[in-house]
Design goal:
Elements (H helix, E strand, L loop, with lengths): L2 E5 L2 H9 L5 E4 L7 E2 L6 H16 L3 H16 L6 E6 L3 H15 L7 E5 L9 H7 L4 E2 L2 H14 L5 H6 L10 H9 L11 H9 L5 E2 H10 L8 H12 L6 E2 L6 H4 L8 H13 L1 E4 L1 H7 L5 H4 L4 E4 L1 E3 L6 E3 L4 E3 L3
Parallel strand pairs: 1-2, 1-4, 3-10, 4-5
Antiparallel strand pairs: 5-6, 7-9, 8-9, 10-11, 12-13
Helix pairs in contact: 2-3, 4-6, 4-8, 9-10
Length: 336
C-alpha cells in the first residue's frame, strides 16, 4: 500500500523527491510560532484561525489561504487510505510545533496504525540525496510516550496563559528530545524586563549598533545566531515591521510593510512586481533610532511604551496582560 509522508515544507519535499523517497509527500507549512493557535481537538478550528492570521499579517487574500489549508488538511484526513504514515521533522521550533500539532491530531484518530516518526537533527531542505536516505534509518514507530508528551506540550502551547508552557520546559522530555529547547526558544520571544524586547528584536537592534545595514544582512546575521534555526524571512520581516512602524520606532529605513510585498505573490500575473518589492525590502538599509538605542540600554520599554499586542499560541501579550520572560534567569514573569 502507498505511504503518506508529512514534512515541514516545499524545500524538504523537493529534497525528498530528489532522494527518491517513495510515498505521497505532504508539506505542512505553517509558522505556528507566530499568531493565535486555538485549543481544541478540531483541526478545522486551528486552520481557520491560522488562515485569518496569515491573511491579515502578510496581506494575503483570505480565500486563497483558506483554500491552501483546506487542501492540506484534506490530504491528512484520508490518512487511513495509506498503509503507513511517516512524520519527518527537524529539531527547530518551526518543526517541533508542527510535529506536536500532528501528534495531537493523530492521538484523537480512531485509526493510527503504521504511524512512524523520523526526527532529524539537521535541516532536510539542505540535505543531499544520500543524507536524506540515511534519515530513514532513524524511522521508528510513534510511541505512547511520544503521544502523551505531544498532548501535554500542545495543551501548554494553546493555553490562555504561558504558565503551563514555562512549567513544561522546566522538565526533561526524553520521548521528544528536541521539544523542550524549541519551546524554551519560543518563550524567549516574550518581552524582556526593562527593554520590552524579544530575543529576536534584541538581536536585530544589536546588529545595527555600528551603523546602518541592509535588511538581508541583518536577517542572515540574526538567523545564524540560533543553534536550531527556525525563523524564515517573512516572519523575520514582520518583526522588523513591529520595530519600524511602532508609535515610537526603534529602527528606520524600511520602504514599506511586509504585507506590501508578501501579498503581491498572490496577485495574478504580478510575479515581477512581487519579486521587485521583495528585493526592495531586503535591500533597504535600516538603522537605529534614539528609541532603539535607549531600548538597548534598557532605558526604553518597547513593550510598554509602544503597547505591543502579540498572539503566541493560545495566549495574548498585550497591555494588561504583558507577560515577560527573563532570559538570564529562564523565568516567566506574570503581568503586574
Amino acid at each position: 500500500m502507498p505511504k503518506l509522508i508529512v514534512t515541514n515544507g516545499d524545500g524538504a519535499v523537493d529534497r525528498m523527491r530528489a532522494a527518491q523517497i517513495s510515498g505521497h509527500l505532504l508539506p505542512w507549512q505553517d509558522m505556528l510560532h507566530d499568531g493565535p493557535v486555538p485549543a481544541g481537538d478540531l483541526l478545522d478550528d486551528v486552520s481557520d484561525a491560522r488562515a485569518s492570521f496569515l491573511s491579515q499579517a502578510l496581506g494575503l487574500p483570505l480565500d486563497a489561504v483558506r483554500a491552501d489549508f483546506a487542501h492540506r488538511d484534506a490530504q491528512l484526513d484520508v490518512h487511513s487510505a495509506y498503509g503507513e504514515v511517516e512524520l519527518w521533522f527537524e529539531h527547530d521550533l518551526y518543526d517541533q510545533l508542527q510535529l506536536i500539532q500532528l501528534l495531537h491530531y493523530f492521538s484523537h484518530e480512531p485509526e493510527r496504525m503504521g504511524l512512524h516518526l523520523v526526527q532529524c537533527d539537521h535541516y532536510i531542505g539542505v540535505m543531499g540525496p544520500d543524507e536524506v536516505r540515511a534519515q530513514e534509518r532513524h524511522r521508528a514507530p510513534v510511541s505512547s510516550a511520544q503521544l502523551e508528551t505531544a498532548l501535554e506540550a500542545w495543551a501548554a502551547f494553546t493555553a490562555p496563559t504561558p504558565t503551563a508552557l514555562a512549567a513544561f520546559v522546566s522538565t526533561r522530555q526524553p520521548a521528544l528530545p528536541y521539544l523542550v529547547p524549541a519551546l524554551r526558544r519560543l518563550l524567549s520571544e516574550l518581552p524582556a524586563p526593562h527593554s520590552g524586547l524579544s530575543l529576536t528584536e534584541q538581536r536585530i537592534l544589536e546588529q545595527l549598533q555600528d551603523g546602518p545595514r541592509k535588511v538581508a544582512q541583518v536577517f542572515a546575521a540574526v538567523h545564524s545566531m540560533d543553534e536550531a534555526q527556525f525563523l524564515a524571512d517573512l516572519p523575520f520581516f514582520l518583526r522588523l515591521d513591529g520595530l519600524a512602524f511602532a508609535h515610537e520606532p526603534l529602527i528606520a529605513g524600511l520602504p514599506f510593510r511586509t504585507e506590501d510585498c508578501a501579498g503581491l505573490a498572490f496577485a495574478p500575473g504580478d510575479d515581477s512586481a512581487a519579486e521587485h518589492s521583495y528585493r526592495a525590502y531586503a535591500a533597504a538599509e535600516i538603522y537605529l533610532t534614539r528609541a532603539g538605542e535607549a531600548a538597548l540600554r534598557q532605558q526604553f520599554d518597547h513593550a510598554c511604551e509602544n503597547t505591543i499586542e502579540r498572539a503566541i499560541g493560545g495566549f495574548q501579550v498585550r497591555p494588561g496582560a504583558m507577560w515577560r520572560y527573563d532570559r538570564n534567569r529562564h523565568q516567566l514573569m506574570a503581568p503586574n
